[in-house]
Amino acid sequence: MIPEIQATIRQPVVGNMVKALNFQFTVGVVPMHAVTYIGYWAYGSVVSSYLLNNVHGPAWVLGVAHLSAFFQAIITLHIFASPTYEYLDTKYGVKGSALAPRNILFRLVVRGGYLIMTTFLSALLPFLGNFMSLTGAISTIPLTFILPNHMYLIAKKDKLSSLQKSWHWLNIVVFGCVSVAAFVAALKLTVVQTQTYHVFADL
């Protein structure tokens, strides 16, 4: 994500963005796949939805890992909550300097309250890991892998070779199947685990 954001800062934006995306979908996916495959090899299908629950090692390494996960969660939350923040700012007429005392107080109370509420609900809900898998299957996978390929096909339909078109359609079909499989798996896992789950079960 950082290379993509940095790519929009300097000209030419489109060329830089393409380079950043190429980097992200080649070099950037390596650690993601490494965690997936090595994690499955090490722990199998019984791994916790929070991977670090299954990891053992020096206390300082685990501490750094937990701290990194915490900061990642906070950053991700703020990125995905930006539309909500913007809506609340507009609805309640937040104007002027972001450093104005009134605006700082409003954002501290409202955004802090939103953060506390979502954190509490995340801890409370027993199916959070499964819910994340479910929403990932019906939103993240299609938005990340299916929709961009389809949009590219529509935008460049007259300029693509048959090989390029086949490649994009292959991505659409494969990730469509992955999305359906992930949805079914998350749903089944939720049903199976309803017998043992309770509130705050993931703590």
From TrEMBL:
<feature type="transmembrane region" description="Helical">
    <location>
        <begin position="131"/>
        <end position="155"/>
    </location>
</feature>
<keyword id="KW-0812">Transmembrane</keyword>
<keyword id="KW-1133">Transmembrane helix</keyword>
<keyword id="KW-0029">Amino-acid transport</keyword>
<dbReference type="GO" id="GO:0006865">
    <property type="term" value="P:amino acid transport"/>
</dbReference>
<dbReference type="InterPro" id="IPR013057">
    <property type="entry name" value="AA_transpt_TM"/>
</dbReference>
<dbReference type="Pfam" id="PF01490">
    <property type="entry name" value="Aa_trans"/>
</dbReference>
<keyword id="KW-0813">Transport</keyword>
<feature type="transmembrane region" description="Helical">
    <location>
        <begin position="21"/>
        <end position="40"/>
    </location>
</feature>
<feature type="transmembrane region" description="Helical">
    <location>
        <begin position="60"/>
        <end position="83"/>
    </location>
</feature>
<keyword id="KW-0472">Membrane</keyword>
<protein>
    <submittedName>
        <fullName>Proline transporter 1</fullName>
    </submittedName>
</protein>
<dbReference type="GO" id="GO:0016020">
    <property type="term" value="C:membrane"/>
</dbReference>
<feature type="transmembrane region" description="Helical">
    <location>
        <begin position="167"/>
        <end position="187"/>
    </location>
</feature>
<feature type="domain" description="Amino acid transporter transmembrane">
    <location>
        <begin position="1"/>
        <end position="186"/>
    </location>
</feature>
<feature type="transmembrane region" description="Helical">
    <location>
        <begin position="104"/>
        <end position="125"/>
    </location>
</feature>
